[in-house]
Amino acid sequence: MAGPLNVDSANGYSAEGSNGRCWKKVVDFAEAKVQILFAVPMVLCNVFYFSITLISVMFAGHLGDVELAASTLANSWATVSGFAFMTGLSGALETLCGQGFGAKMYNMLGIYLQASCIISFFFSIIISIMWVFTEPILVFLHQDPEISRIAALYMKHLIPGLFAYGFLQNILIFLQTQSIVIPLVVFSIIPLGIHFGIVYSLVNKTSLGFKGAAMAASISIWISFLSLAMYVIFANRFKNTWKGWSFESFDYIIRNSKLALPSAAMVCLEFWAFEILVFLAGLMPNPEITTSLVAICVNTVDIADMITYGLSAAASTRVSNELGAGNPNRAKHAATVTLKLSILVSLVVVLTDDAITCRLNCHLCHTKHLIRGCKGKWLAKLSSVS
């Protein structure tokens, strides 16, 4: 069983010499090293899972300009109305499982996980009903009728993936709070590799075409969830934290919801701040072009956000584990180190975002005018907001 990420020298300053003490005051390298080693696998894991839906958009986009606009609009609508909400709901487990693991209440982690999965399933039903009416909703938001119609078709085939995505996010947090991160990279890159074959076959080798891109995303997300669930059920290392399904989990649904709903609201507001640009682009002339351009930039920002998400995951685990173990000073120190690392990472991302944007755009776009537009200075500036 992996233990909490404890750093014995977190509050000490053992460096010799004035220079060593000076640097120690700037950042605790021991704590920073622990958080970076934790964050890197989480960054890779989230990028791989995020890439599943993005790759589907890429394949759909190569079918035509209208298909690219519809798939990017659908992906943005799926993010703001579903995927972001599911990610936020799982945030309750960061507190509950993290502190439970730090306090060595291992049996409660499985109970919290089950309660969170029940909550995710309930809201997935509500969101899927809303997704069925995607076309009138998008038209009400003054999006192009033809693009809205095709986007609605994409959304209907993405509904099965919503349920799996909610369960997947809960399991990710369940493992993250136990400092189990390396297996997450393995279990995220395998479905991504499989997804390439699935989406290529459904889009190019069957009559499904555009619909096949969304179906492939749903299938791959389910593969991701089932593979990770089997790992938790059958791996011996979870014998203390996962003891099978229990009706006791229903007693913790209200408790989980009190943390899950505010967490979902915060995550949704963060995503909405960028994704609303896609809907605003749909109000401009030539929406099949402008929607695609802005959506590509927003996707670039989302990828950049995965880096900071990895750091936040490390901070959340460190802080919750230390609080659960009764070490508030160490929890405060870990949060301070994360803040300093975030500032450094933000500077690096801003400096490199332009090059990343140009490369991603060439893969998403298939027409010359889209590629030229994607490389425009105003879009590079937009993506550098991250």
TrEMBL record:
Source species, domain of life: Eukaryota
Segments passing through the bilayer: 34-57, 77-97, 109-133, 153-173, 180-203, 215-238, 259-284
Keywords on record: Membrane, Transmembrane, Transmembrane helix, Transport
First-listed, main subcellular location of the protein, grouped into a coarse class: membrane
Location in the cell: Membrane
UniProt family annotation: Belongs to the multi antimicrobial extrusion (MATE) (TC 2.A.66.1) family.
Name the UniProt record assigns to this protein: Uncharacterized protein
